[in-house]
């Protein structure tokens, strides 16, 4: 840690990683699930027979869609197949240790019965509190729940993108109070939650509220000790987001890895971080036509391994259908990833960057509880010989396969100098095997 070079009133509240047990628990998750659900799902990405090619949760911004019609969709929201316990069991089987749920996306529709707006689940035929059902069901499976909350709210009359006039400023004051009230309401209603996953904080209007957002963050943390908040919440007094004007991370982890992954450990600057990923290219809410490339379980597992090997968590998004069931593609992925996790979870949970040189065959993780190293191989060398470079003073006792603990691969020392030792681990004896 270092001293800030510029005095900032609303910069970071802390330098370096958060050391407490709740944050260590977050760091050790490795794998999480995101769920995007809300009124947008009812459209299935279609409007009056026309396909909307963008992300479903943005369909209300499409010229073809009238605001009034969109904002009455929830009057049809009655998900007959919704079963939070089934979601939570599937998530458990898939191997996630935490989940993030959309309490309110940009459209402003609340999946809990907020007392600060009428645009909520309470005014749908379903009526019941979906957030509560989700929090309780996941908690029962031992999966920690985080609340996704969009600051952008296209439904609220006081919401503004920018504050151009005094009237805008006046309206926005009401919006700020509304937002603070909703956040406190969520913490009050769902004390089991471990944190907020904020979104939609890039508007000029919000960026200019450094004093307000700084004290709101402090207030939320006081209300809920240990609360985890990422870097996508507030800006400093110079309008800098994620990293303040001194370059220091604001919040408990870096929240900028959205559908992309760091290449190397240098890219993450010693910070905690999460990567949130869609199965299709860029659609979070349910869309009947995913289009484009749909990721396979192997691709997603590789992204998870890469995330953990670079000190991050990997979070995979599911977008349930309007009736509340997951789509078949997601059910299949959950099974496939779950089968891999069943054997290999110890290479993901409690694991971090191993401090060793990256190799082309895959990723190396190290379990911070047992000290064991894991080689997660996605591109086995044709030779069958996997190269590994260890640091001075390190050695190898045994190399085995998690699928078969009795395996004992042959280890060949090929090079040694004062920087360490290089080995070949022979997965096969004969390259043509
Ligand atoms: C936002 C939302 O607009 C989207 O609907 C979804 O909820 C996603 C998780 O978050 O989309 C973003 C947010 C941040 C970036 C890109 C898309 N970013 O930082 O590049």
From TrEMBL:
Keywords: Glycosidase, Hydrolase, Signal. The keyword Metal-binding does not apply. Its EC number is 3.2.1.51. Residues 17-346 form the Glycoside hydrolase family 29 N-terminal domain. It comes from Niabella ginsengisoli. Alpha-L-fucosidase is responsible for hydrolyzing the alpha-1,6-linked fucose joined to the reducing-end N-acetylglucosamine of the carbohydrate moieties of glycoproteins. It holds the Pfam family Alpha_L_fucos. It is an enzyme of class 3 (hydrolase). InterPro entries: FUC_metazoa-typ (IPR016286), GH (IPR017853), Glyco_hydro_29 (IPR000933), Glyco_hydro_29_N (IPR057739), Glyco_hydro_b (IPR013780). Gene3D superfamilies: Glycosidases (3.20.20.80), Golgi alpha-mannosidase II (2.60.40.1180). This is alpha-L-fucosidase. Belongs to the glycosyl hydrolase 29 family.
